[in-house]
Amino acid sequence: xxxxxxxxxxxxxxxxxxxxxxxxxxxxxxxxxxxxxxxxxxxxxxxxxxxxxxxxxxxxxxxxxxxxxxxxxxxxxxxxxxxxxxxxxxxxxxxxxxxxxxxxxxxxxxxxxxxxxxxxxxxxxxxxxxxxxxxxxxxxxxxxxxxxxxxxxxxxxxxxxxxxxxxxxxxxxxxxxxxxxxxxxxxxxxxxxxxxxxxxxxxxxxxxxxxxxxxxxxxxxxxxxxxxxxxxxxxxxxxxxxxxxxxxxxxxxxxxxxxxxxxxxxxxxxxxxxxxxxxxxxxxxxxxxxxxxxxxxxxxxxxxxxxxxxxxxxxxxxxxxxxxxxxxxxxxxxxxxxxxxxxxxxxxxxxxxxxxxxxxxxxxxxxxxxxxxxxxxxxxxxxxxxxxxxxxxxxxxxxxxxxxxxxxxxxxxxxxxxxxxxxxxxxxxxxxxxxxxxxxxxxxxxxxxxxxxxxxxxxxxxxxxxxxxxxxxxxxxxxxxxxxxxxxxxxxxxxxxxxxxxxxxxxxxxxxxxxxxxxxxxxxxxxxxxxxxxxxxxxxxxxxxxxxxxxxxxxxxxxxxxxxxxxxxxxxxxxxxxxxxxxxxxxxxxxxxxxxxxxxxxxxxxxxxxxxxxxxxxxxxxxxxxxxxxxxxxxxxxxxxxxxxxxxxxxxxxxxxxxxxxxxxxxxxxxxxxxxxxxxxxxxxxxxxxxxxxx
Length: 695
Ligand SMILES: [Zn+2]
Description:
Elements: H1 3-13, E1 20-24, E2 29-33, E3 37-43, E4 49-56, E5 61-64, E6 76-78, E7 81-83, E8 89-99, E9 103-112, E10 118-125, E11 131-139, E12 146-151, E13 156-159, E14 165-170, E15 173-174, E16 182-183, E17 186-191, E18 198-202, E19 211-215, E20 220-226, E21 232-239, E22 244-251, E23 256-258, E24 263-275, H2 278-293, E25 306-309, H3 319-332, E26 336-339, E27 344-346, E28 349-352, H4 362-370, E29 374-379, E30 383-384, H5 389-393, E31 409-410, H6 416-433, E32 437-440, H7 461-480, E33 485-488, H8 500-503, E34 506-507, H9 515-525, E35 536-538, H10 545-549, E36 557-559, H11 568-590, E37 592-595, E38 604-612, E39 617-625, E40 631-634, E41 644-649, E42 656-659, H12 660-665, E43 668-671, E44 676-685
Parallel strand pairs: 25-26, 25-36, 26-29, 29-32, 32-33, 33-34, 35-36
Antiparallel strand pairs: 1-2, 2-3, 3-4, 4-5, 6-7, 6-12, 8-9, 9-10, 10-11, 11-24, 12-23, 13-22, 14-17, 14-19, 15-16, 18-21, 19-20, 20-24, 21-22, 27-28, 30-31, 37-38, 38-39, 39-44, 40-43, 41-42, 41-44
């Protein structure tokens, strides 16, 4: 980007502060700016539409477009015709409007010069966020039906000033025995400067979360996220000899019909700029996600919540057992009580099992509500047992590929009658059970289906099932019953996308995999996603500091054990740890997540922390997982060096007063006397007299 030109333009425009956009009609150039970044796009002399550059003002970092290739954000293929860097456009109209949730949207309406149609480019900018969100919409004004056969929601050709780059990606959950198991591992890669492609395959039943962060050795970084639940792949390529850093992408199996007069929305994507490393990439992504994308925090309810889920009983549940558990859960301080799989007559037959629940679900729901808890219910809506009434009456509603969820057959959500039926069923289940919370489940929420008898095109099931199926259904049900919160689960967290966060309040990670695995998954997922999207199922029956506190850090803490079988000391211990969870949850939710150590593993001590800039406070969970050393130096570098802080512990009675410099440099000496044990550390500003402000 030409800095001199940019600065000159802005001096003349005299604009500074909240998001603004200016169009220079002579240069046909758009300049978007907020307090922390600016970005530029241009309709070139030949009529090509190009990204020109971004600048991260806070850190004086430049991200100009590549010099050797044009960076053209409109990437679509209609049957045999491609929209690429050489495609020419005529500017029809440009204007600004409000973007959702307080942003500014620059709209640029272009007409493709071959008569293929119109393209609306939407670029959103928000106050104080170094994030650019982009949407491309194609309008078929060609007068004939076309098919979108390729689209690249993530497409940037950047100038690579550095010699080398490092990429961070995070897996989602695909357990064994799949061909390519994944378990929320943090994958750090050196990007090959010789141009070898680094692929990130995301979406339902795929390998990675829909996010990648890339920075050079100086800490100049860019993180990209994409908003699509279906399967797609983002390629990263660094060609040092050409000084290019290129991102391109493709949606799997795309063949979307666009009749004359209709439109096609390319899934939105965003680019976030950061200075530093993985935690900084995470922080800017997470703040943007909370402020712009994510389902807003539930009003009037503490969140992330403490939850109990019935799965310790498997499908062997009944009203009497659950009433007993509900009474105990309320005593412990549980806030949401969820009835998991097994309440209905069968998968797809969403009426209460008359033997287990002779009075229906409403009696139990009323009882749970009377105890002051929310009521949640398991609903595996894309699944139906082979002999369920819905499949007996509509055998063709199955998707052509079956994913075998507890013996059920898969329904094709892209088929019009199926999605209409599911919306009606979801609303009915919510009303009849008076549910506040839906635990969504199923095996692969974006089914593959090549049926010619369905309303979607047989070659388009990935996009159709994701956008027209899953997202459409959620939008409809949530519009009808907006008070209900949804938990994302598909036999675990394997649809970890920036579309998912828009539909759900939280997500499970690696199911009930145990204490260490829960920490490992929360460690990984809290790079791309706000920590409330890492809920953890706790299956353990016996309590100690190592077990219970392995679940303290993250989103909702979901107890998945039999409370009636806990002995009195364990019950009391769990109650105290639940109170502790509630005392730290807002700092963990709102703070910058600091991955202080490497990921948790046996034989190590691991630490994860959240630093909340608004309160200048932090909380850390430090776990000795069989490590030899009985102390750990917890270093947190976010505090003001000359300021004093009070440090307290869950178990250790010491109260320390340390300066920010001491905490960052020598660290807090955390005592971990048990070989398997966990300590919780809170750090708050000291008042002028040296006392904690909390005292
Ligand atoms: Zn189908």
